Amino acid sequence: MPFSSSLNPHRPGLAAQPKQDAALSRNVSSYKEPGYEIEPLEVTEILPNCCEFDNQINLISEAYNLVYGVSTNLLGSTNLNKIETPVKNTVLHIAAWNGNNAIVNLVVEHAPKLLFTFNKNNDSALHVAARGGHIQTVKKLLASYANIERHDIKMAWLEYTNNLDDPKEYDEKSNMEDLLEFVKMKNVQGNTMLHEAMLCNKSNNISGDNIFEVCELYENEDCLGNSLAKCCYEYALEIVNHAKKSVLYLAVENGEEDVVQLILENCLNSNEAKPKGLSPVVAAILKRNQEMLNTILKNKPT
């Protein structure tokens, strides 16, 4: 069954999802898409020439009609907010996983609250876009999170952070403070979106430094002088997942010397900052990568 909806909470077959739930406990390194009941967007595989977002939305709407026996308009924000798969993936999760930017734009336009909705794996749309290697989708999503000129996105932030009492006080500094916290959000495996970008399948033909290039676009500072452009490199050193791996460690494991160099050269207070979790030096040794080891020791002798 492709879709469930909170509009039909008692529909038979939706209460027990052992296969999907078991998938949430899988190892970080083996995390793949089986948790997504439509993998990847079945309607576009069935009709590969049907690429316009209106048609894809209509096809998903038809699928919903087949499941529930009623017609629905997915462009209505109420429907978009309520439709979800058994593992709580929203339409935005599915679009982000597939890197379908037209659908992402459309969903954010009509249902910005989905930017702050998490699935059972505690993935935001940012997590799944990064996991899929869709850097342009990550870029579009970050732009949406930062677009507080849109009143509905601003209000979605205030609702998410429980600050609806003072909407007039919410400015670019407040937004950057919240965005930094959001980017640090961990899923069930303890991965941030930065971890997921580094863990994504290399068949996507992207390099790990792409995620940092996107983060560098956000130079606005919060009240403490922090920005995503600066802090993304700190996060790459300091935030570890449940496997005790930092983004830096994963970059070393992947043999991405350019990414390692980029992180070490740009992290704040480079003479003092030390990576948390498993040592990237050990990773370089285990991989027998002398050039990587030299890069690490040159930038971080300790």
From TrEMBL:
PROSITE patterns per record: ANK_REP_REGION (PS50297), ANK_REPEAT (PS50088)
Xref: InterPro entries: Ankyrin_rpt (IPR002110), Ankyrin_rpt-contain_sf (IPR036770)
One GO CC annotation: plasma membrane
Locations listed in the record: Cell membrane
Coiled coil stretches, renumbered: none
Record membrane topology: Peripheral membrane protein
Pfam families: Ank_2
Keyword Transcription regulation listed: no
Keywords: ANK repeat
Location (main, coarse): membrane
ANK repeat copies, ranges: 121-153
Matches recorded under PANTHER family: NO MECHANORECEPTOR POTENTIAL C, ISOFORM D-RELATED (PTHR24121), PROTEIN ACCELERATED CELL DEATH 6-LIKE (PTHR24121:SF22)
Protein name in the entry: Putative ankyrin repeat-containing domain, protein accelerated cell death 6
